[in-house]
């Protein structure tokens, strides 16, 4: 197997971390900016002093590592193939951000079997790194994997943009999460907006229809402007918050991160998977072992 990964060695801080906050980023429709949101939100939280782990679960079209200019030696696909341990995949990104990369182009891997899900969450329970926040960058669509990761998270951010398909696909995702997976709260983030009011209008559109048909609490998280600096940062393989901190998108991401930091971690686990995910942190592990 691999040589020992320095990041994966026990580096637990002496102060016990609180429960890890798990935030899933999803969108329904592809290409709305979900990975850009995941990367920049994770980076903003890390820069604000939250020890953050960014998990790329998009096994079909992974690109978190590409966006951050990282060169994975192992990816999640290797974990599933038994070629390495989860700890071997851990990469250290800018400012100490931890990244678990997925593998691009493995279309057949986009759907995890229930056993692989259990294996993954079990592998997370074995990780011995202190983390305050875990951001999950999901694949587009409404696959079982997406639903499971969203269900496992304490908060779900649904990214929308100003395209009719984005709003209808976001609604379809929220509907399944609410009706089939017991998700009761959804944060909506509008991306690529031309004007702040555009974000609010998108949210209102979505909220009207969810209020009518679904039993789910919606919250407007805010908007990220359409920003040429973000595209340039992608070309430089950096998070825009690091490459161009004064860019409008960077300022918006920092605001969103501040809001996310204030979210209350629920007292009890929502479901079986969340129970295991919470074992990511050592204190809970000993309490639940
Ligand atoms: N706020 C923004 N301003 C300008 N361009 C943006 C913004 N957000 C995303 N983009 C553009 O949209 C493209 C797609 O973004 P991204 O890869 O983050 O989307 P995605 O939803 O994760 O896609 P996929 O579904 O394929 O994983 C980016 O390469 C970038 O050019």
From TrEMBL:
Keyword Nucleotide-binding: yes
Domain CobQ/CobB/MinD/ParA nucleotide binding: residue ranges: 23-238
UniProtKB keywords: ATP-binding, Nucleotide-binding
Listed Gene3D superfamilies: P-loop containing nucleotide triphosphate hydrolases
Record keyword Kinase present: no
CDD domains given in the database record: FlhG-like (cd02038)
Pfam families: CbiA
Domain of life from the UniProt record: Bacteria
Name of protein: Cobyrinic acid a,c-diamide synthase
Organism listed in the record: Cognatilysobacter xinjiangensis
Upper taxonomic lineage: Bacteria, Pseudomonadati, Pseudomonadota, Gammaproteobacteria, Lysobacterales
